[in-house]
Every structure is written in C-alpha cells, then in structure tokens.
User: Fold homoisocitrate dehydrogenase from Naumovozyma castellii.
Amino acid sequence: MLRTAASRFATSTCRTYATNALRKNLTIGLIPGDGIGKEVIPAGKQVLENLNSKHGLKFDFIDLQAGFQTFLDTGKALPDETVQVLKSQCQGALFGAVQSPTTKVEGYSSPIVALRKEMGLFANVRPVKSVSGTKDRPVDMVIVRENTEDLYIKIEKTYIDKATGTRVAEATKRISEIATRRIATIALDIALQRLKVNGKATLTVTHKSNVLSQSDGLFREICKDVYESNKDKYGSITYNEQIVDSMVYRMFREPQCFDVIVAPNLYGDILSDGAAALVGSLGVVPSANVGPEIVIGEPCHGSAPDIAGKGIANPIATIRSTALMLEFLGHNDAAQDIHRAVEANMRENKIKTPDLGGNSTTQQVTEDVLARL
Assistant:
C-alpha cells in the first residue's frame, strides 16, 4: 500500500494536537478566498461528500468569507463572523487562496495570517512527496513551519532617516521560547511517527543564527533543548541543523537527505514553496494549519489571477489538504483512501491540468479522483 508523507505521522500526532479527533459528525467551514480558491475548494467539498457512506462520516458545511475581495466588499479581509463560526461550530475548515496586493492598501492585511493568530494555528505542516511511478525525483519530506510569529507578526514602520533625509523601513522579527518549544515538539512527534514506519527519521532545524544570533539563535537553542531534554522519547531520531541558505541549495541538489524539517515562519514559507518544484507544481502540494481546537487544510498555491475563472486550476493540492485535515482530526482510513485515489491519478498521468502539462479541467481531475475513490 502506498503511503504519503502525511500518512506517516497521522493518527497519534493528530490525537495529540486536535481535541475534536474521532468525531463522526464534523462541521467543516469552507473559505474559498480569492481567485482559483473559489474553483478548488468545491473539489475538497465533493471529496468529503463522497466519503460519507463508506467511513460512516457525516459532514455539514458552512460557507464563510475572507480575502481581498471580501475586504473590498465589506472593509474587512477577515470578518468577525468567520472567526466566530470557526471557533463555535467547526472542527475543520478548508481555506482556498488569498489575492494580497504587493503594495500597501490602507486597512488591509492578510486574512490567513490573521486567521492563524485568531485560531491558535501554531503549526503549518506541508508534506512534499513524489509519487512512485512518475518521472519526479524521489522526494519524501515534511516541512513544519512555525505559524504565528517571526516577521509575520507584521510590526513595521517607515521613517525619515535624519542623516540622509531618505525613508527607512523596519520590520520586527519575533521568536519566542513558547512558540519554538511548541513547533519543535510537533516536528519531533511527526519524525517519531515516520520512524515507526520507516525505521529511521531525521529532524533538520533550519535557521540563520550565524547572522541573527539572538532571534534565530533562540530558535536553534530551544529546538535542541526540546530534543535533548526528551532523549528517552526522541533519542532514536537523528538531529541535524542547517543554515537556511545552504538548506535551499541542498534541498534542490539532495532532497533525499531530508526527512522532517522545522523552521521559523519565513524560512518555512520559502522552503515549502520551493520544494513544490521538486514534485511538479505548487498545484499538488498540500498543507494543514494545526491548532489545539481546529485544523484548516490549505493548498500551498496562491490565488493565480492569471488563470482564475478559466476552470483549469489544479485541485490536487486542495484534495490532498482535505485528506491532511482528516488525518489531523484522527480519520486516517478516510484520508488514506483520498491519498491513494490522488496517487493513482498522478501515476496514470492522463487526466491532469495544464500546470502538469495536460489539458484537463479542474472538474475533470476532481471527477477522476472521485471515480477512484
């Protein structure tokens, strides 16, 4: 049986971090966001509906709003109602994509960053795995990204330098012991699950402490302390460190050397998007935003305004994110059915969207996966 990178840390890790695990009746929030998010989130919904009878699961769906278009329409990128419904009614959610402007828009900030803070989604987990039987290089890694701090706390200022009379922009980078212990622990737990399946596991801590000796230095120090202080639990895991710039180089040259990677928010974001190139497309890479009360599946791609509305967006990342969400909610069997169906589609390599060199539509790929389910 083929197993994805995600499946190797499924059940016990999920039960540790999701208090709503193993509920049969699940309420799922659907947040399409902008651009192709509106086209791929329905694919995730269709897959969940297809699971109802076989696994005894019942899904109720609530349509929710967030995104740049929501900001233009309402003045809020993340409406209070969306947060309240997620907190009070939902065990899981699917988030599509956000079309964030590259220049400053007064009053606007990224709703997914705000949502991660509001919901306590401290970990972004991104499995990157090639499918056996395809032309992709063998890749099987999980990038665990701290999700709540670093430069993403969005504390910035611009001022006039008195000496030169020109503008200077500054941003605050925050690394805390609490957040680092939390992300190091889930990364090591994921590595522990992979150890049980593969017989070996490696954790690579990524940082730039040779330059940022205090912030990245603290991240490095705490990750190592979590490992060293729990040698009875994690001692069979190989512990490595890698400076982020050399990490990027080695990840592309020697992806087989990496297993579980843990990184601060910014580095994790860059590494996981870059790693998608190793497996064909951002359109096939999933992620899960994990918190103590809710799990939100989120494809790694953006809103892709150049293809939005054409019906050719790749739904695979969303479908895989749907499976990943189920894994963290404790429903591993249902998740594995989804993973197997997706892998069969990719291995056959006939029904595929243009980003993978095909000419199929979003719905055609979705229907092919549904047929394999």
Remarks:
- Confidence is low (pLDDT under 50) at residues 1-17.
